[in-house]
């Protein structure tokens, strides 16, 4: 493994928040936080907006959605992203309702369009961390 | 319950040069802005008994600024939620005065971001749930909203450009604006360096050195001062925070709650507003505010600006000094500064004739949410 200075390593997600979500990714599950009383899904974790004393839990979901909006980043803020410029950052509207920030992987920037259907990709970083991206389907 | 309408006034305004100020720390610039504001008010230093600053990470040395100026305030508050902070500081100042804690409160923003070479908006953290996906900076977050707005309403880049160009045209008439000698047109805009597509360099506010400070006191006390009081008719705050990502976030700001509170307190409707400074971190923000305040219908903000309705000769002059995009970036203090100048009749070649009631907005963030969600409304009159 090549030695990399800390400056060239991408930030990792803060898995101390929404831990069951990140645990789920490790076993190829895309979990969302669901209110079992009114069947509304949330991401990230929060108390249900509709119900008084909500009964909530993380449940596996489809991992499917569509592109709601995106940017193509041209500006370098973190040297770790140098090789990827220009890259997309996208907001996916999941079929179950919530929206999530991620990247469209495996597509040229020109092929990314609002409305296109996507599916989650489980990206293993190491033994302890799997993160996500989405591919156009 | 009695309200606060017309009970308090801005009696002092101080601002430094805007642009590049070599050899000065942010603290130096803060001292200068506050000094100017106090002198402008005519108040003796001993009267200033409250101090609020928009803080950076030097919160625990905040006292150095009042000390250097020979002030002894009863409180020193640091507040920071981006562009809404200036309006929030006025609300806080009023609270302190209503509670009998202070009589004259100073509020200040200053920075030496340009000279210190800070790249605004980045993240140094190696644990960052947005950085992990390459999302950096408020501009990029707003760009997400810009693209969606284009998709839903057909808003064009040329329409976003018209906001930047209108503000630049205003700044060209203002010697005190950093960009007073740098015109640009649609062609220049279209060739601008792309930052977070669809927003480019010209969609972004400036990064400069500079500071703005105000002094607030009771309307009663203001009568004995040499400066012309600018009365606070109403204030309001809002905060779209209920979800990190939500369709509403991308198309509407939480203007409603802030505007309703402020306008109800002030007893005005939108028609009463003679001049408006809508917080302009980015062109798309101004466009959304134009719609959400009701100057035009949702989706028509682009056309409103492109057709000149917000220009100095338009229906409702907006961002008359060039503001954060062309005058000088002092977060929420810049629009307040311009409205005070307008209401005092001191806006030179960008003066809105007979401006009597002015609307100021502020827009900022307090969380790691999708884009800046906090909003503030301030209604001032002469």
Q: Tell how many strands the DSSP assignment of chain A holds.
A: 8
Spans where pLDDT lies below 50 across 5 or more residues of chain A? none
Percent helix of chain B = 25-40%
Quickly give the structural class of chain A. mainly beta
Radius of gyration of chain A: 16 Å
Structural class of chain B: alpha/beta
**Spatial order of strands in the largest sheet of chain A:** 6-5-4-7-8
Q: Greatest interface and its residue counts?
A: A-B, 38 and 39 residues
Question: How would you classify the quaternary structure?
Answer: heterodimer
- The dominant shape of chain A is globular
List keywords for this structure.
heterodimer, A: 137 residues, mainly beta, five-stranded antiparallel β-sheet, three-stranded antiparallel β-sheet, 6% helix, globular, B: 382 residues, alpha/beta, nine-stranded mixed β-sheet, two-stranded antiparallel sheet, 11 strands
Structure description:
Chain A is mostly beta strands. Chain A contains one helix and eight strands; from the N terminus they run αββββββββ. Chain A has one helix at residues 19-26; strands at residues 30-35, 41-42, 56-61, 64-73, 87-94, 99-102, 117-126, 129-136. A five-stranded antiparallel beta sheet of chain A has the order 6-5-4-7-8, covered by helices on one side. The radius of gyration of chain A is 16 Å and the shape is globular. Chain A starts with 18 loop residues before the first helix and ends with a strand. By secondary structure, chain B is of the alpha/beta class. Chain B has 13 helices and eleven strands. Chain B has a nine-stranded mixed beta sheet with strand order 3-2-4-7-1-8-11-10-9. A two-stranded antiparallel sheet of chain B has the order 5-6. In chain B, helix 2 (64-68) links the parallel strand 2 and strand 3 (76-79). In chain B, helix 5 crosses helix 10. The longest helix of chain B has 16 residues, at 26-41. In chain B, 58% of the residues are buried.
């Amino acid at each position: 493994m090549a030695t990399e200075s800390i400056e060239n390593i991408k930030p990792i997600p803060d898995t101390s928040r929404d831990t069951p979500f990140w645990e789920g990714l490790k076993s190829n599950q895309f979990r969302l936080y669901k209110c079992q009383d009114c069947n509304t899904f949330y991401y990230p974790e929060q108390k249900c907006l509709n119900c008084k004393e909500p009964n909530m839990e993380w449940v596996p979901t489809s991992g499917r959605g569509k592109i709601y909006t995106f940017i193509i980043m041209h500006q370098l803020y973190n040297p770790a992203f140098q090789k990827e410029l220009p890259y997309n950052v996208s907001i996916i509207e999941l079929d179950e309702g919530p929206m999530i920030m991620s990247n469209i992987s495996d597509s040229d920037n020109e092929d990314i369009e609002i409305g296109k259907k996507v599916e989650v990709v489980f990206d293993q970083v190491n033994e302890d961390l799997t993160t996500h991206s989405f591919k156009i389907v | 319950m009695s309200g606060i309408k017309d009970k308090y006034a801005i009696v002092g305004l101080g601002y430094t040069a805007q642009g590049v100020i070599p050899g000065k720390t942010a603290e130096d610039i803060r001292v200068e802005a506050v000094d100017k504001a106090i002198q402008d008010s005519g108040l003796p230093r001993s009267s200033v008994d409250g101090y609020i600053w928009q803080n950076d990470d030097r919160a625990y040395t905040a006292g150095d600024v009042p000390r250097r100026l020979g002030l002894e305030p009863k409180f020193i508050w640091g507040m920071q939620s981006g562009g809404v902070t200036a309006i929030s500081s006025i609300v806080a100042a009023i609270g302190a005065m209503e509670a009998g804690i202070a009589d004259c409160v100073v509020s200040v923003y200053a920075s030496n971001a340009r000279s210190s070479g800070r790249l605004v908006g980045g993240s140094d953290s190696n644990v960052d749930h947005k950085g992990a996906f390459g999302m950096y900076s408020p501009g990029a977050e707003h760009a997400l909203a810009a693209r969606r707005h284009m998709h839903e309403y057909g808003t064009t880049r040329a329409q976003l450009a018209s906001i930047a160009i209108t503000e630049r045209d205003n700044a060209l008439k203002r010697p005190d604006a950093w960009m007073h000698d740098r015109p640009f047109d649609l062609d220049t805009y279209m060739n601008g360096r792309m930052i977070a597509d669809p927003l480019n360099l010209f969609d972004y506010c400036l990064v400069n050195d500079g500071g703005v400070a105000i002094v607030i006191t009771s309307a009663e006390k203001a009568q004995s001062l040499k400066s012309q009081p600018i009365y606070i008719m109403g204030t309001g705050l809002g905060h779209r925070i209920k979800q990190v990502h939500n369709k509403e976030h991308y198309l509407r700001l939480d203007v409603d709650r802030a505007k309703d509170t402020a306008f109800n307190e002030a007893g005005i409707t939108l028609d009463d507003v003679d001049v408006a400074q809508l917080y302009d971190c980015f062109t798309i923000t101004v466009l959304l505010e134009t719609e959400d305040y009701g100057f035009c219908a949702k989706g028509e903000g682009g056309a409103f600006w492109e057709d000149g309705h917000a220009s100095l000769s338009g229906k409702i002059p907006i961002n008359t000094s060039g503001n954060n995009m062309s005058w000088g970036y002092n977060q929420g203090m810049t629009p307040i500064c311009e409205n005070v100048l307008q209401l005092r009749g001191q806006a030179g070649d960008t003066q809105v004739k007979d401006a009597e009631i002015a609307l100021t907005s502020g827009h900022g963030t307090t969380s790691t949410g999708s884009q800046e969600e906090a909003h503030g409304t301030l209604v001032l009159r002469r």
